[in-house]
Amino acid sequence: MENRFTAKDFYLFLVLFVLLLVLVTTMYMIDRQWDKLTRVEAVMLEQAEDIRRLRQAYTELRRTARVRPDASAELSERNGSEIPAAFQRSWEVSQRPDFAEGDWLVRAFGNSIKTITPLVSSDVYASMVQGYVLESLLTRHPETLEWQGMLAESWQVSDDGLTITFKLRPEAAFSDGRPVTAEDVVFSYEFIMNPQIKAPRERAYYEKLASVKALGPQEVEFVFKEPYYNSLTLAGGMSIMAKHFYGPYLENPETFNQSKGLLFGSGPYRLADPKGWTPDTGLVELERNPRYWGPVQPSFDRMIWKVIENETARLTAYRNTEIDTYAAKPREYKNKLLSDEQLMSRSQNFEYLPPTAGYRYIGWNQKRKGEPTRFADRRVRVAMTYLTDKRRIVDEIMLGYGEVAVGPFNPQGKQHAPDLKPRLFNVDKAKALLREAGYEDRDGDGVLEDASGEPFRFELVYPQGSEDYTALALFLKDSYARAGVQLVPKPTEWSVMLDLLDKKDFEAISLGWSASLESDLYQIFHSDQAKNNGDNFINYSNPKLDALIEQARATVDEAQRMPLWQEAERVIYEDQPYTFLTRGKSLVLVDQRMKNVQVTPLGLNVSETPIGWYVPAELQKYK
To answer: What is the DSSP secondary structure assignment for residue 352, as one 8-state letter?
Structure first.
């Protein structure tokens, strides 16, 4: 007898399918509700702990002083004159008629991020995230650039400049409610200086200090071994790490060194799980710190960065309002975006080149696996600079949105030696220098060879997925070929590139450095920083430059210090450890729902805390 699939069977199958679908949906909803309940429970536990501490503080206050019934109301009243200077700009923004807390700020990272653990991380993306979570004793006013107290309410510098004493704000607290004390400041310094902690960059700077001591619960003293021009920046700019959170990692420093997401601080935002972030999530998400100690609370509920490595995908995400900002490339900005009426109608666009703008470069590694490379010869490095047509790079690749870089200092800054001019593209000079260094076309194939017949061929490492770097590599490949030099482009994934830098295992690399108001060359060009994981990853060494850097760092008087920096730049100009390429304008689109977007000497004020940008209530999209 033949089996047949009847209508009854169909309806029975349909009922079973619906029941299964309801079951799966129910399980999913229960799981989501359980997750929400877990988070609510965590918040309630935090609030209970806060209430307990408030009761203890109130009891102690009543024990030590007579408090009028209306004292708490009086203390809670604030006006602009009572707001600390570091919070004044944020307070003024918070008084605007359309200001509202809430919404999310969603941005994109162009490369995968390896770790956001402080000290261990080395890229600008991690630093950006940390800036919302970690705080320092001082902060700069974004317009005047003057120092203002953040965690410190006041500070004093001794007459000889060797001792700086800070008094901490008694209200300052970490995101778990525990107070920020002088012991945390001392711990932060000692943690950095512990040789078992992977912090060679920071250690290179803080070696200037003789000691950091707690003079009391809210008072800390920094004593320098010798005069240092940047002493206030060094002491006041140190990110304060909580001893009770990071201290246990001293028992097993390698756990800290290998960590990916240990981020905890006193700032206006925090990780929901300060120990649980991992790179495989594909994004970094910070939430509002519900216990932020500042007199002004942060504007956004969440700060989110999505990893979108493909440039086309990033633009698509901005078009689809999935991210709120987009850093454009010159060609697409000028030829496509500015004429896109629909996109520009909902965007604010900014073109700026602040004093802190860094530079792009090609770094010539002078030693690889313990052996000198062809770039150990100064003549070869200078020849490569002559073969690099920087003006064409600015005109044709950057479409005029930038300027030629001469050295490590901003051309408009006091550190720059004004007599230095860019080396113009000159194939004849390049060939003459390479001939002096022993490179000639010995077999007539158009490629230079050394005395042993080895062709002048090298790999240029650069970030993969970047149209700018790709265009630059192809441009250089063609340019160098005119002189018989073969460049092999090597686009590299970001985390792999960081490993190559740590191991100094490459021939040449193209990247960029950010800058500061007064740049310290020690980290990048001093020979001491070629050791271990320092940032002199091209193994460059010049005793004359080392001496000038050390002398400049020890010269407090600006009028005497600037000529030393200028002479140091002249040494670098002659040696060309880098071929300094360009300084580029930032070309940024910002969703129009973002308000208070400003260009300051430090760049866009998005990083200003606790309030830089905000979204009026009627424009908010994330509830």
So the answer is: E
